Amino acid sequence: MWTRISSTDLVPGDAIRLPLGALVPADATILSGSVMVDQSMLTGESVPVDANPGDQVYAGSLVSRGQAMAAVTATGSKTYFGRAAELVRIARAASTEQAAIFGVTRNLAIVNGVIAALIMVYGYATALPPTDLIRLGLTVLLATIPVALPATFTLSAAFSAQRLARRGVLLTRLSAAHEAAAMDVLCADKTGTLTQNALQVADVAAMPGFDRDQVLALAAWASSEADQDPIDAAIRKAAKTAALGTAERLLRFVPFDPSTKTAEALVIDRGGNERRIVKGAFEAVSKVAETPVDARRSVDNLAGQGHRVIAVAEGVPTSLRLAGLIALSDPPREDSALLIADLGGMGVRTVMVTGDSAVTAATIAGKVGIPDGVCPSDHISDDLSTDAFGVFARVVPEQKFGLVKALQRHGHVVGMCGDGVNDAPALRQAQIGIAVSTATDAAKAAAGMVMTEPGLAGVVFAVREGRIGFQRLLTYTFNMVVKKVEIVLFLAVGLGLTGHAVLTPALMVLMLMTNDFLAMSLTTDRASPAPLPSRWHMPNITAAGVALGVFKLGFSTTVLAFGKLWLELGPQELQTLAFVTLVFGAQALVYVVRERRRMWSSRPSNWVLASSAADIAIVSALALSGTLMAPLPWQLLGVLFLAAAAFALVLDRIKMPVMTAFKVS
């Protein structure tokens, strides 16, 4: 006697009944009966799967046909769904953006910290008054901190997200825009990403006495219109161009039965005779119909090409013969091969990760340009190399998760495309998780990027946009490192040259506003994507920044010495001169480092030009009026402006060998 209880009260070993339309309440093994279950919520696969005695069904799947008895094997967090949820919870990927911010901050702290300590020791040794020493320490501290760096990364990601949204790519995490720049391996799901996620008739093998149209017409009579079965829908669509054969009227239709693996139709032909049509698995149809001796070879040949094979038999009710074989497949998207080639040209290797069979996966991989080499699911390990394999078939959620981690351990920045609950752990673990347009809510929640259009076009655009954003951030970061190193060194040289601090804390705060924050306009500058994955190499950037900072220090020191020794300016006027020199020099630096080639190779964006003009205008107005500083004559400001412009041309000649030597570009 059956008892209705809550699914939360189920325990392993309980017997459950799975009628048509039921939602499977727990992972279970079929004991008797046969069902077809829709697992699209779990796997993203649109085609229902057969479950016979001994087969496993999973919690959350839907019984679309048949009925069965099953024994519960797992509940709650131990189910297929529950294990996926637990993996999502523990999945963590190292962020290249966070590593970049931490790296530049750490390197600046080390370099500038040593210089700052030496400045304070020198000031104490020269008996600098305690109040002046405190002000000097505060100025050095302000000069060292990269105040606008985190905000600039966020602003750049926000601009990238806006552009991506226009192309149907939505970011659930802003950092995903920057992670795409470094991606060098893309793990792509097969169904719905590389393929159309819609079964189509790929081939028809007609037996002697029948032709292609007749086979399709017969199969259409034995296909349902009501339940939206994807196999029946594909057959009826292909049969629209075929005549309905000799049949004129349908007497009886028996839907597909998972226990017999066949569907039947009884029709009346034009002569008024009853004809029986049976459609289903070849093994089932061959038991009730006369079959040619070479039919099995045809089935194996079609199945070997990755097709799903449906047999069709026809005849009088008591005597049937095989009419033909229909091969169905989920064909590749028309743009998949081109987009995979585009990614390959950008240095991103695409591998297929699917729960489908190895034969089907290899067939699709060959059509879209993914290199052969199918990795058995039991070979996924920490020593895995994508150079040896291009296809990973029959992969379960834990293995997808493990595959992503294995690739990350080998130094790869991994992107993962997926659509089902089973993909969620890998989507969360990957640096850039990409949920396709048909993805389940769980997959979208785990991903950092959600496509609103099918296919990989959005991924290609995201990689290009990410690399453009990376170039802008590289310009800002390199510009900031040069300025921070130069300013701290300049404070040290100025102290030795003049005997007092050449900048006050107030001037330093003003410089942060006019230089650091206005330089955030570089996130809107024109830039070109790199041809290969873009990664942060902070030791190289820091070393190149120190080198250029020393050259820029030469310019600033020369101007300060000119004001001290030639113009004989007083301490306050020297502070104004130092402030204006650093600001004008910083503007020259922006135009030098924004281009990897010559500074005039491309036109700056309007925002960069506007912020530069605003910076120069504000500083000049303050220096001329004597606001917050001692005034300077306009003639001197004009000379400083021309000197900074001339220095930009000199620094542009020095930049290229320095960036090449330290491999910054």
Q: What labels would you give this structure?
A:
single chain, 665 residues, alpha/beta, Calcium-transporting ATPase, cytoplasmic transduction domain A, Calcium-transporting ATPase, transmembrane domain, Rossmann fold, 8-stranded mixed sheet, 7-stranded mixed sheet, 22 helices, 18% strand, elongated
Structure report:
This protein is an alpha/beta fold. It folds into four domains: 7-78, Calcium-transporting ATPase, cytoplasmic transduction domain A; 100-168 and 465-661, Calcium-transporting ATPase, transmembrane domain (Up-down Bundle); 171-196 and 332-461, Rossmann fold; 202-328, Calcium-transporting ATPase, cytoplasmic domain N. It is built from 22 helices and 20 strands. The strands form three sheets. Strands 6-20-19-18-7-15-17-16 form an eight-stranded mixed beta sheet, with helices on both faces. Strands 8, 9, 10, 11, 12, 13 and 14 form a seven-stranded mixed beta sheet that branches. Strand 9 (247-257) and strand 10 (262-269) form a beta hairpin. Helix 3 runs parallel beside helix 19. The longest helix has 42 residues, at 457-498. It is elongated, with a radius of gyration of 35 Å. The model has no long low-confidence stretch (mean pLDDT 86). It is found in: Membrane. It is a multi-pass membrane protein. It comes from Rhizobium meliloti (Ensifer meliloti). It holds the Pfam family E1-E2_ATPase. One of its GO terms (molecular function) is P-type ion transporter activity.
